[in-house]
């Protein structure tokens, strides 16, 4: 058994080096795939002094390693390869490594593995280290070029295709990305294709890749993709940024789907549908997941997480975006009821049990265990509250500022919230408690009508039960939308947002002529 250490948010340090570019060559073979990696590295100015270079790797058969073409002997221990600072140039240098891996023996489905004769990858959160030596952490963003060699008809990776011949293909992704967004697919696949022209006129080739025979079950996924692309332009002003967008349906997949840059990989049940067998719910799920992964292109990929503690930065926000999209497509009220039912069934239960954790945890042992309803669904509710609190216009201004300021970077939840504080001129320091405190607040509302004074007193209280490791709870700012109706259903007072940011608050409304 390997020993698991606890990782703490407070221990964050930038990586020792900058990776300016990555060139990967894959010679695919089921039992012995050769991975040749060339990294252009230089010391990170944010980490002064001379630092060792420590790369992650798991289950790799190490073959060779050179620095600027000279063979070196790294220290390989546990799950890392280390080159001592004294053996490394003080400026830019090139690191070449060669390893061998066995995709057909990979049953964890993390890294490069095989599914029905097809090669595919899953790298989030820490699967890339099972492919090659690399700083496998989301704040190391780099430009990837990939060459795939295999005797298979379809060879795919991230970015744009640059060249291909019989048995090989080359891809270039111009957008810097962390390793968890790397993807490779190779196999005998067929495409359901369409195209899309972005608002500014870029023509994008869209393909959904499936096993031969499944091509006619992709129409709804493709239609959902096109609507998602248009919606993100209209609602958030975000356009797609490559010449191709590929989706691959895979039968063996750990997660629902994965937002790899330009090459989304899906569990096939969230892509394939035909009217003969799919239910209305199946269609709604396909639409939501296609949208979710597409929306990650901006909230997750162009702007990513500094470390895995910030997982909700991309997931909570992207769930909120896909919920809003589904609401626009299918009716807001019905969608909202659906989302709240999921929240109550899954997240409230999590929050009420021994596994309760904050939306932005402060420590973890295995990040894989944090892909939870709290980080996804409660993370989305926090964004929704933020929008309720600030109003749609200030919310959009905050999002615009976030995209402008952090594009191309790996960042934090604090930096995200700062954009909304700045755009709205509001103090959101109390709001941040939503990310740090676990548990479901219980809100109580009571009212007393004073006919003589034509006044209504509304008292709001909140209370959160203790959770594991957090015995004391503080009140959090809860925006409560309140409107008044009379007994015939006529509106006595239009809905307005009252913020409860203490344990108890009473609001007096005057000029209420009839008892609400
Ligand atoms: N990052 C993936 C997603 O949420 C993992 O499931 O889309
Ligand atoms: Zn996601």
Detailed description of the structure:
The protein is of the alpha+beta class and 516 residues long. It has eight helices and 29 strands. The strands form nine sheets. The chain has an eight-stranded mixed β-sheet with strand order 6-5-9-3-2-12-15-14, with no helix packed on it. It has a five-stranded mixed β-sheet with strand order 17-18-19-21-20, with helices on one face. A three-stranded antiparallel β-sheet has the order 4-8-7, with no helix packed on it. Strand 27 (478-485) and strand 28 form a beta hairpin. The structure holds serine and zinc ion. Residues 124, 255-259, 292-293, 315 line the site of serine.
Helical residue percent band: 10-25%
What is the CA–CA distance across the termini?
A: 64 Å
Overall 3D form: globular
- Identify low-pLDDT runs: none
Cofactors, ions and other ligands in the entry: serine, zinc ion
- Kindly state the mean pLDDT as a whole number? 97
Q: Strand percentage, roughly?
A: 25-35%
Q: What structural category arises from helix and sheet content?
A: alpha+beta
Largest sheet: 8 strands, mixed
Beta-strand segment tally: 29
Biggest β-sheet: strands ordered side by side in the sheet: 6-5-9-3-2-12-15-14
**Nearest-angstrom radius of gyration?**
25 Å
Please count the helical segments.
Answer: 8
